Amino acid sequence: MSSSRDGIQVVVRLRPLNERESNNTAARRCLEVVDQASLQYTGRDAPANNHFGFDRVYGEQCTQEEAFEGLTETVRSVLQGFNATIMAYGQTGSGKTHTLLGDVCDRQQRGVVPRAVAELGRGIADCQDDCQIKVTLSVIEIYNERIRDLLDPAKENLQVTHDRERGIVVANATAQPVANERDCVELMQRGIAARAVSATAMNAGSSRSHCVVYLIVERAFADGRIECGKLCLVDLAGSERQDKTAAVGLTAAEGSQINKSLSALGNVVNALTDPRGKAHVPFRDSKLTRVLQDSLGGTARTVIILCCSPSLLNDAETLSSLRFGIRAKGIQNSVQANAVKRTPEQLGKALAAAQAEVEALKQRLALPGSGAGSSGDTPSGTGGLQNSIDSSSGPLQPGRALGLARGVHKWVLVGALQLAGLVAYFAAAELLGCA
Ligand SMILES: Nc1ncnc2c1ncn2[C@@H]1O[C@H](COP(=O)(O)OP(=O)(O)OP(=O)(O)O)[C@@H](O)[C@H]1O
Ligand SMILES: [Mg+2]
């Protein structure tokens, strides 16, 4: 993929024309794939430059397997302690749920989420490191600005918090340990089945909530270190025009909440790519943008899959999605691995070792003849730093060189003492949970 390592990657997937679109004789197309990384918009209100370039463009013939191929590296990075996000964006009926979930039980038709589970399974099997690996699964939905736990639907107004080891997390969401791919997919299916879905004129199985699947991988090493990576898979509810979806009553109310959170997402993307560079980023304007905070302009590797209809019937929505994607491509994330968690025992050991080092250094500073004790401390002393500066005008004598070395030695010891003190301070702070 061509974008910079830390830039958000944006790929486009066109879905085939559906029956209604191909039966409409007046309907033409609004998108043509030019090559693997660009397409041409041929709909109404086309901008002067109607070519759009992305990290990858998949045409209508693209299989579920091909759509996943470019994502394997992102998924695998979670095993090295990175956070990664894969999010499907697009108007209602454009193929987001098909791309992300597909037919979970069918090997050909399964989407990104079950394939990611399988890929992590392969990564774990290949892992050469001496560590124990634990994978947990959470499934949540954001429905009408409330976060519901789809693995335990009784939990229905969860809050978003920031966790030092895992970044942005949904507090108290069920995190179910999973032992193998089958377990994980079964549990995920159970969660997804509880998601809010309704029929609209645009999509018989329209998602009425944003759904997020979290796969958290923890690697515990023999020395007590724990490394944590989080894969966040987001199937957004689609933006929709009420006249097109023919939504009324509850479905219309859901639609307006969906549009509100998607417009908050657009505002965050605009703020992050503001050329003046200092705009306030309104992450707190919606639950969706808060959940995505470390995926947009944060530390995660992020891939957005823009799902588009190539039909002229949907040209305005398709053009709007392309513009969103171009803007999002400009977001720079500072990809970095999560902080390594240490157990209290390990922190206790680190603290004891640092304290012992402080004591040893203090004793060495006090030792006569070490060049760091009282005899060398005074400016007039033979081993003092001052002495070596004074001697710089004359030719270098062995004794003078030794004086310099002794002076440097003292400051190296003082520096080491300060460093060891700092290490002890941080270990103690972390142990007490205040770092
Ligand atoms: N690439 C594709 N190949 C074949 N069928 C597809 C493809 N993409 C989408 N479809 C079909 O189009 C219909 C709508 O897709 P889907 O439900 O995934 O849309 P969506 O973007 O999730 O919509 P919403 O926002 O309303 O939830 C489904 O019947 C789906 O199977
Ligand atoms: Mg959907």
Automatic annotation (TrEMBL):
Keywords: ATP-binding, Microtubule, Motor protein, Nucleotide-binding. InterPro entries: Kinesin-like_fam, Kinesin_motor_CS, Kinesin_motor_dom, Kinesin_motor_dom_sf, P-loop_NTPase. ATP binds at residues 90-97. Residues 368-394 are annotated as: Disordered. It comes from the Eukaryota. GO terms for biological process: microtubule-based movement; mitotic spindle organization; spindle elongation. One of its GO terms (cellular component) is microtubule. PANTHER family: CHROMOSOME-ASSOCIATED KINESIN KIF4A-RELATED, KINESIN-LIKE PROTEIN. Belongs to the TRAFAC class myosin-kinesin ATPase superfamily. Kinesin family. This is Kinesin-like protein. It comes from Chlorella vulgaris. The lineage of its organism: Eukaryota, Viridiplantae, Chlorophyta, core chlorophytes, Trebouxiophyceae.
